[in-house]
Design goal:
Largest sheet: 6 strands, antiparallel
Distance between the termini: 12 Å
Number of strands: 9
Strand order of the largest sheet: 1-2-3-9-8-5
Length: about 130
């Protein structure tokens, strides 16, 4: 199956993505992760004002198949969370890179994103799985 991997995103090997716009990082999970999980039934996200740390868990996603922890690609303060997904988590399945984002975070260190994979690097990773 062929998945979309937008070039403007950076990716983690745990299948989260990050889109950087100035000091604001938008975080979500990839289409590949959604395919692996199946239908999403529950999403746990941090509250606005919480600080999340690169490499640490910031929430969880539950599907009909599994519960997975969500890992942060950056350190920063949560300034927005996608409330629509809390009440209707299935929306993640429909548009992971658009309306299916999880958090917007004001980041403290732009250099942190350099550790994340490019779209081509991520594609090579998942094509090997």
């Amino acid at each position: 199956m062929s998945f979309e991997y937008p070039q403007d995103l950076r990716y983690l090997d745990s299948h989260e993505y990050v889109r950087l716009d100035g000091d604001i990082a938008t975080i979500g999970i990839t289409a590949f992760a959604i395919e692996q999980l199946g239908d999403i039934v529950f999403l746990e996200l941090p509250d606005i004002g919480d600080v999340i740390f690169k490499g640490n868990t910031f929430g969880s996603i539950e599907s009909v198949k599994a519960v997975e922890e969500l890992n942060s690609p950056v350190t920063g303060t949560v300034i927005e969370r996608n409330e629509a997904l809390i009440s209707d988590p299935e929306q993640v399945n429909e548009d992971p890179y658009g309306e299916g984002w999880f958090l917007k975070v004001r980041i403290s260190d732009h250099a942190e994103i350099e550790d994340a994979m490019t779209a081509d690097e991520y594609r090579a990773l998942v094509d090997g799985e």
